[in-house]
User: Fold this.
Amino acid sequence: MAKEVLTEVVFKGGMRFDGKSGRAGKPVAIDFTPEGEAIDGYSPLELLLTSLAGCSSQVVIGLLKRMGQEVQDLTVRARGEKREIHPTVLTSVELEFEFRGGRIDGPSVEKAFALSEERFCPVWVMLKASVPITAKYRLIAG
Assistant:
């Protein structure tokens, strides 16, 4: 049986909305302004990239722990290139995983990436059909 995922957005004026999860209920500011102007929240594409970074990092951490790897610190940066004409869709996405400390080996990270992309991160699985996504990583001791 299918499960629902619920969110809602509430208009706050200008181009600002507050988005709320159907589960957590905590607001996330979503805004749009022309480039160079002040923005009061995430743009929709930034929120999409944040979702991809969050989903993939949660999956990778979970898989690495199952593989017996020790993860102490992880930062994921998502970078997207977008078209300049409408629709200004993403044309490529790069995920950069930076692991600090712990005991992690490269082959385990690469296996976790593959499983995340192919099966366990629904955001990655959905997006890869329309935009190329590359992932790279750095292991930093300490």
Q: What stands out?
A: The chain has two domains: 1-42, 44-140. Residues 44-66 form the longest helix (23 residues). The beta strands are 7-13, 16-21, 27-30, 73-82, 90-100, 133-140.
